[in-house]
Design goal:
The complex is a heterodimer. By secondary structure, chain A is mainly alpha-helical. Chain A contains seven helices and three strands; from the N terminus they run H-H-H-H-E-H-E-E-H-H. Chain A folds into two domains: 2-67, no CATH class; 77-181, no CATH class. Helix content of chain A is 70%, strand content 10%. In chain A, strands 1-3-2 form a three-stranded antiparallel sheet, covered by helices on one side. In chain A, helix 1 (2-41) packs across helix 2 (46-67) and helix 5 (129-141) runs antiparallel to helix 7. The radius of gyration of chain A is 23 Å and the shape is extended. The N and C termini of chain A lie far apart (52 Å). The relative contact order of chain A is 0.09. In chain B, helix 1 (2-25) packs antiparallel against helix 2 and helix 2 packs antiparallel against helix 3 (59-88). Chain B contains three helices and one strand. Chain B is elongated and about 55 Å long. In chain B, 74% of the residues lie in helices and 3% in strands. The chains are: A mainly alpha, B mainly alpha. The interface between A and B is large, with 39 and 46 residues. Strand 1 (118-123) of chain A pairs parallel with strand 1 (101-103) of chain B, so a sheet runs across the interface.
């Protein structure tokens, strides 16, 4: 009997604790968003401030658990950011090539015979959310490939022809993205 | 400065144009997203960069660069979300040989 009471108490405390954490996530998201709103608008009259407060509150209510959900503190966060910045020029270059390639395909009079769209599926090595997100976005931004689905470590990618699919399969981009998030 | 801005805006508009032409010419939903999703990203980036040059390195210019960064982050996600929605509701992809899914192994050097 006392045992059950004890458990109930712990559950209540835990529930309050989670509610507190949710509230803190909401509050911190709200403060960041609202600070950004004031920075961007530069208007400090009550009308614009209340507009900002309402929209920031809505966004924090809906997606406040996104930014502060990962409790695991990352030791090499800073070096990750640094390596991500070094990865950016290559990505920008790839985006530029992608657009030229698509522009070439689009404006080619015999376009239908050049393209061969299909979906490919392959496995990836790393599992962290950040890696998967960066990799998926990089695939979508580079020549002729778009990530459709990530399921159980498999990537489903739509490729516009064989050549870009084979380029992706050399694994160069995966290596580059993996290098950002690797432990060292 | 203004000449750079005009060149960037022209380049951005060119990519918007190819995106629209691709939307009209490509055979199915999936390949159309290749045309629009990608050209929109680069078109918007170039146009915004042109506007940032036109505004000079003022507060407005910094704000425009912020918008460019957000477009850069959100645009591929939106493209992916659209394709995912089509895939989930079983829109058939247009293919040449009728086989839509190919399994591939990543080659290692």
């Amino acid at each position: 009997m006392t045992n059950e009471l004890f458990l109930d108490k712990i559950c209540a405390i835990l529930r309050q604790h989670t509610r507190f954490l949710t509230f803190m996530a909401f509050l911190s998201t709200f403060i960041i968003l609202f600070g950004f709103w004031i920075f961007l608008s530069g208007l400090l009259d009550p009308f614009h401030l209340s507009l900002g407060a309402i929209s920031c509150a809505l966004v924090s209510r809906i997606s406040g658990d996104l930014i502060f959900s990962q409790k695991k503190a990352d030791r090499n966060h800073l070096s990750q950011i640094f390596r991500f910045i070094r990865f950016l020029p290559w990505l920008l270059y790839q985006i530029f090539i992608a657009n030229l390639y698509i522009a070439f395909l689009v404006l080619h009079p015999n376009m239908i015979s050049l393209i061969d769209p299909h979906i490919i599926r392959f496995k990836v090595r790393l599992k962290s959310d950040l890696f998967l997100t960066t990799f998926a976005n990089s695939i979508t931004l580079t020549p002729g490939t778009i990530t459709i689905l990530i399921q159980e470590g498999h990537f489903y990618v739509h490729a516009v022809d064989r050549k870009v699919a084979d380029d992706l399969m050399t694994g160069e981009m995966e290596d580059r993205v993996a290098r950002i998030y690797q432990e060292d | 400065m203004e000449i750079v801005a005009i060149l960037l805006l022209c380049a951005g508009t060119f990519f918007y144009l190819t995106g629209t032409v691709g939307l009209l010419r490509f055979p199915d939903f999936y390949s159309r997203m290749h045309a629009t999703g990608k050209s929109d990203t680069l078109g918007t980036l170039l146009s915004l960069l042109g506007l940032a040059f036109y505004a000079g390195f003022s507060f407005t210019g910094v704000k425009i660069l912020f918008i460019a960064v957000f477009i850069f982050l959100t645009s591929p996600t939106a493209t992916h979300a659209l394709l995912r929605a089509a895939f989930d509701s079983k829109v058939p992809p247009w293919t040449k040989d009728g086989r839509s899914l190919r399994d591939k192994e990543v080659r290692r050097k």
